[in-house]
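USER: If only I could read backbone structure tokens as easily as an amino acid sequence. It would mean a lot if you studied the pair and described how this chain folds. Here is the record:
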Amino acid sequence: MENIRYARPGATDAEVIEAAKLAHVHEFASSFPAGYGTLVGERGMKLSGGERQRVAIARAILKDAPILVLDEATSSLDSESEMYIQEALKKLMKGRTTIVVAHRLSTIMQMDRILVIDGGKVVEQGKHEELLKAKQGLYQRLWDIQAGGFAGEKA
């Protein structure tokens, strides 16, 4: 509970639990021996990378800041964790300005505006669909690589 409440110390238990539900934390936190009171971290329950990221999203939901910055929010996640994170992020980003830094293009395909930066300069910008239509564009080439899987990656 306190791990999420850290974002807004005055939050009620009900507000913390609501943020946890929106971020898909409630499912695993409820299963811990002491529920939300379970100690996590080095001296307690170990959380997976996806679980830690969902806790961070729950904090951001509770904080309710008007601007959100996400830096590689889905990096190093398995497909199931990424699905939960994507769903939670969609709820979190609604109605606020969001800046997303990502190499995994599936993270940003729903954004209103995508800026493609190469060599420190903006080389393309637009919506996902527009950028895919730009033949020989960097975004389109990267999308083709990622959508087809990386060399050596198993389906």
